Amino acid sequence: MKYFDKMKTKTAFEIIFIATVGLSILLWLIFMFIGGDSSSQLRIFSENMWDFLADSTNVLGYSAELDPYNNQIFGLGEKAYPPLTYALMFLVSRVVNVNSYLEKFGDYKKLWTDPKVLILIIIFTVIVIIMMYTIIQVTKNGSMLIKSLVAFVLCFSFPMLFSIERGNTIIITSIMCMIYLFYYNSENKILKEVALISLAVAVAFKITPAFLGILLLYNKQFKDAIRTVIYGIIIVFGPFIFLHGGFLNIPLMFNNIFLNLKYYSSPEGCTLAGSLNKFGRVFTSNDYIVPDIWVDILKITTVIISIILLSVIPFFKTQWEKVATVVIILIILPSHSGTYCVLYMIPVIVMFLNEEKHRNVDIIYLLCMIMISWVYFCKVSDYIFNIHFALPVMTLTLLITGIANAINYLKHKNLIGKGV
């Protein structure tokens, strides 16, 4: 029993996390070099890299004429970002003749082969990795060695590797969300304001992080919430002035968002339906698709679970659990949640590892966080013990823990139990 209690210490959890995730990174590299260019280890990247960096090169192409919401390549549903992304990508598009690639290949996927574009992408990748490493190291408590090791393994964890290969703006978005989640309730006024602006920037890249603003309401930071909304309106809608048509693009953006949600309604990614679909393919065939009836059931179930989780957030005893609950909802609730959305879990992992004391239930959370970060190197970890197993388990654990905490609170207040 004493040995078991020692395993629940902060240091033990940190060592276990660093050792297991670090080992997975090492084994992944070893088996990838052994397997060569046909190695199964490349499955960690989307579709074995057949459309390498497509999330950035395509957007680069859509932005070149400053009229992305009317660009017909791959359909209007692919142009659903707020204008900040397109305005910034327009600057990058100035270094390459986009139309020549469009005429030669029929799309923009090969833009990354242009040396100038590739150099800019490499520079951007290095910058975001340094930013992520620095923020993790600053927000992680403990010795400098522990801070550095946690930052290192997270910067080369599955969510980061997958997102880097996609070239998706989720990386910048997650960094902004991380700053917000750590400092939105800071006593330092400057840090707090930076956090609120960071959330607004995150929303300007990906609309869904706006959901994280609910933490301000739970914390009764109503004035901060109002300022965040103002920042959001300015940063989200302001860049429309740089696009052809200006603010007339607003209804076009929302129309494209609707088309995007409709197009990507298949059971993939980080939703509960996506997890069921993943396991269906493990135990049946690679072309297995979850029946529509189950997708509909799981969507309704996800909404119900999300509502319950939102109602029990005040009853969680630790800050990391409150943040984890909101982040889990952010990941599983949207009808389409790409695999890269699991990157939002990184600040949750850091907060969890910052806890000085751990409970028995935290062992489940630790295993889930290891699976989320784990770099696949064998069929077992690729097909079973991965994010599609970890997210539902973590969701269920938070749900049960939250309900139990709520019941205990109500009993303590004599609102349920004897005499009621």
From TrEMBL:
It is found in: Cell membrane. The chain crosses the membrane at residues 12-34, 80-96, 117-136, 142-162, 169-184, 196-218, 230-254, 293-316, 323-353, 359-377, 389-410. GO terms for molecular function: hexosyltransferase activity. Its main location: membrane. GO terms for cellular component: plasma membrane. It holds the Pfam family GT87. InterPro entries: GT87. It is a multi-pass membrane protein. It comes from the Bacteria. Keywords: Cell membrane, Membrane, Transferase, Transmembrane, Transmembrane helix. Belongs to the glycosyltransferase 87 family. This is Mannosyltransferase related to Gpi18. It comes from [Clostridium] fimetarium.
